[in-house]
Amino acid sequence: FSMLAPPIHDIGSEVIASFHSGRMLTELELGAVSARLRAYGIPKLVVRPGNPDDVITLCSFTNHAKKPIITSIIGAKYRYTRAMLPLFGSAMAFAYAGTATAEGQFPIQEMKQVLTLLCV
């Protein structure tokens, strides 16, 4: 997307600059990746938490990050994090309509219900 971002911005559209990691990053690493991505558009960081402390780290990073930012997780074990991250400032939550495209995703109707209950 580094080559495509400038012409997309030139026509008045926004780029979501995405990074996926099969592991959890430290808060310092999350910040560095976010800064690199922000040069091209809205940063989207997706990581795989390995334990509850990783979930807390991601929520804290999301809360303190420059906005807008999109954060999410990979996997089913900590899937509740997908619905929590908007509470901490993630601009989007991902769900599926029809068939799940990633392990741990919520159906869109369930995600809407959860976010409504959480007043997001």
Structural topology:
Blueprint: H1 5-10, E1 16-20, H2 27-38, E2 42-47, H3 52-64, E3 70-73, H4 80-84, E4 95-96, E5 106-107, H5 108-117
Parallel strand pairs: 1-2, 2-3, 4-5
- Helix amount: 25-40%
Mean of pLDDT: 95
Strand content: 15-25%
Q: Number of helical segments? A: 5
Secondary structure category: alpha/beta
Report the span from N to C terminus. Answer: 30 Å
Summarize the biggest pleated sheet: 3 strands, parallel
Write down how many β-strands occur, each being a DSSP E stretch of 2 or more residues: 5
Shape: globular
The CATH class name reads Alpha Beta
Task: State the low-pLDDT regions, or none.
Answer: none
Q: Give the neighbour order of strands across the main sheet.
A: 1-2-3
> What is the domain tally?
1
CATH fold category name = TIM Barrel
- Taking all Cα atoms into account, the compactness measure Rg is 14 Å
Give me the strand/helix succession: HEHEHEHEEH
From the coordinates shown, what is the CATH architecture? Alpha-Beta Barrel
CATH homologous superfamily grouping: Aldolase class I
